[in-house]
Amino acid sequence: MNLIECYNALGGNYEDVLRRLTSERLVKKFAVRFLDDKSYELLETSLRENNIDEAFRAAHTIKGVCANLGFDKLLHSSSDMTEALREGNIDMANELFQTVTEDYLLTINSIRALDD
């Protein structure tokens, strides 16, 4: 799968991120680095432990990275979760976690399918 196909598969905005990063090489470099980010694992653990502050930090980090990389689908679901956690609504955050998980898995699996 090439980079444009990857962005289409993960519900991203390739053209927008390409304008910001200016080269396909940089877009791919940072997209692949997303696989090493531990924010999703921190979010999962923090929700399980009802640690709203850490869950908020993790969701906010995911949201920011997705905004920078044009991962729009995951950006929207992580943004909704960030706002629920900002309000201290752990029940809503736990409900939203299913969608964040689906979007996260779609994102990482699409990145993993990139051609070398």
Mean model confidence by pLDDT: 97
Give the C-alpha Rg.
14 Å
Specify the biggest β-sheet. Answer: none
Approximately how much helix is present in the residues? over 70%
CATH superfamily: HPT domain
Summed up, the domain count is 1
What's the total count of β strands?
0
Can you tell me the overall shape?
elongated
Give start-end ranges of low-pLDDT stretches: none
- According to CATH, the fold-level topology is Four Helix Bundle (Hemerythrin (Met), subunit A)
Q: How far is it from the N-terminal to the C-terminal residue, by CA?
A: 9 Å
In the CATH classification, which architecture applies? Up-down Bundle
Structural class: mainly alpha
SS strand fraction: under 5%
Please outline what is shown here:
The chain has 116 residues and is mainly alpha-helical. The chain is 79% helix and 0% strand.
Q: Could you please describe the fold and organization of this structure?
A:
The chain has 7 helices and no strands. It has about 120 residues and is mainly α. The chain is elongated. The chain has one domain (about 5-110): HPT domain (Four Helix Bundle (Hemerythrin (Met), subunit A), Up-down Bundle). The chain has helices at about 5-10, 15-20, 25-35, 40-50, 50-70, 70-85, 90-110.
